[in-house]
Amino acid sequence: PKSAVPEDFTIFEWNGNMTEIWDQFLTVIESKEDRDLRFFNQGPWRVFGVTRDEVQIALKNKADARTDIHGILYCADTVTQQPTLEEYMVYLGFDENTDENFVWIPEEFMQEPLPGHFFQYAQDGRVYWLNAQTNETVWKHPLYEKYKRMLHLARVQKPLPHWKSVAAFRIEAMLGSIFKTNLEDDLEVEDAQLPLVETVENVLEIARVFLVDIHEKPFLVHVLKRALRHYGHAVKEKRKVKDVDDFRNLMSRYSSLVSQFQHARDAETKRVATLKKCVQCDELDAVLFCDGCRDFFCQSCFDRLHARGRRQNHKRTLVEMGMCSECDDFVAMFHCVQCADLYCRDCFQTWHAKGGRRNHIPIILRSFNSQTDKLAEATPAMGTGSARIVKQAYSPWFCFTDENQIKLYYNIKTSECRRDKPLDVINEPIEENKGGGLSAAWAGTWGANMYPDPEEQKTLPHFSPETAL
């Protein structure tokens, strides 16, 4: 009521007796003939929600003493219990008349997933969130402050409703909050260290900015980390964030590079499958290599074709066509005595690089390897490393560094974070000398070298004009 005299609407005085309040409440309700009173048969405790679990948890945690409510997100859909875009707009304070160019902000607010320890619920048309770590319920969305600040900043800077302008604005907003507290101090020092920008949270955020699915293409995390490093320097020096197209092109090039390694791996796999079979019957595995025919045969086909004529004088070599026990993609080149397993070249190097396995003694399977100088198609069967590069490119494990310069390992797909190095392959950027020059599409580009990795810079010699003279 908007009456200047509140007493005009007062029927009964307030008191602390629940039974008396309930009787007074029913007196008013029962006076209305069109009211359905079945809802009130549950009694005052259930009608007023006192017995609900979330109410009891909030009372136990004294939420009423410290909860600061900045509006409530309402949800009219009682079936899906998911608020609509219009309800998110109202919750953010979005003005459709003046903020029409910023409609992407409530859209992103609606689509961004919640932090892993928050769960969303709706009750009586109102949305609340449960923090599983503290077991507290809150009315404020965990990302409310982020998008409220973004809306306020958009009203000031007025970015154009174009994907390139929006992306640049979101990157500036993200990194601007990092540099806000120490930007002035850092600029006074010539060689000041940049704040930590290549973090897991920033990588996930800039992936959303560039609309990149890093679950499907995890190798693009390396491009995103390069972008964070570049934009970090731009924001520190108070320059406009640009080059959005350059990094999109760089991601396309890097995807093309990985795709070429995939094609090479698939071609090698087909060649290996062809070499394993007898060239004559194409059913049994080959066990002999004919030096004159330069083909692989099973025992029966070789005996039948070389039983008469000049082929009787052809020399034959027994071949071992066992597949690698680890990858099962390439013909084994080594037999490890201690492991009692067959390995291709890449798998043997990977599994015998550390620990006691470094002292394992391999037996080189020369019977097949010796034929590579006679049969050109046999060389890919030895493995060119493309399978290992593809496996590494699609590994979900990445190495990050925290504020104390200590390494941590993060799984992009499961969100698992750990300090000890996992046994799985760590996703590393493709090196420049891999793939016979194919990686020129990545490591040799302007985008990759504009701001080198600080760890790589430590190993490079320092060059100055004075030393040159």
Strand runs, count:
12
Helix content: 25-40%
Percentage beta strand:
5-15%
Shape category? elongated
Can you list the strand order of the major beta sheet? Answer: 1-2-3
Q: What's the tally of helices? A: 19
Q: Give average pLDDT, whole number.
A: 77
Biggest sheet record: 3 strands, antiparallel
Instruction: Report the structural category.
Output: alpha+beta
Name the assembly state: single chain
Instruction: Compute the separation of the termini in Å.
Output: 86 Å
Query: What are the low-pLDDT stretches, counting only 5+ consecutive residues below 50?
Result: 65-70, 183-191, 435-451, 459-469
Rounded to the nearest angstrom, the radius of gyration is 34 Å
